[in-house]
Amino acid sequence: AQANVSAFAMELMPRITRAQVMDVLSSQANLAGYRAVIDASAEFGRAFPMMMTAAGTVPAAKVFVMGAGVAGLQAIATARRLGAVVTATDVRPAAKEQVASLGAKFVAVEDEEFKQAETSAGYAKPMSAEYQAKQAALVAEHIKKQDIVITTALIPGRPAPRLVSAEMVDSLKPGSVLVDLAVERGGNIEGARPGEVVVTPGGVKIIGHLNVPGRLAASASSLYARNLFAFVETLVDKKEKTLAPNWEDELVKATLLTMDGAVVHPSFQPQPA
Question: Is 23 a residue of the active site?
Fold first, then answer.
């Protein structure tokens, strides 16, 4: 049989324990979260940690991370290592404990809808308009006090949710920095532009770099190569030293796009008119 398992298909890898070493999205998101903090610190122009000197005290930077998935958690950890005071938010209840474990404070409207806001695969569910309004009001008040805001929120198969409005951006102090890691999927921040660092009339910078893991190219390539190698190993008969995929393997089923000239992946079948 002629089959095709493409690099794009690696993004379809199921989120199960066995496939963690093959999880391209996680390996690259880790780097993106780290780099987002480094890019923010470069644009911020002030110190991250509190410094007590003879000439006075430099206050610690206040960093707010929106979306506590793989990228968000790495951003939290990196900002904490640099000495910032970190807060974070996410619509998934499980994120609260993860955020706290990294020494950050969790910020969210914790009502009944919040308690049900996670899919069985661990992704965030789209929230109701009522919840979004309540969360936006809480976040708007919180953002006013922040120096740096990093957004990482994505929902599979949908445009990135808008988390930060133009009014929220304008409420930040001059010199504050926002980093939008979802800018390639429409952006979490109003006013973010793909591939640009925008400076607002109020002196706030909005960073919209593309391919953020690629800004750490050597590390990104190394991790991606390990993801691919781990997957290819499952397709090889080590005894015979030949390519012998098991077409019933759940990893193969999830990532197989075409076979014998036909599209076989259920997500890419032609839709009825």
Answer: yes
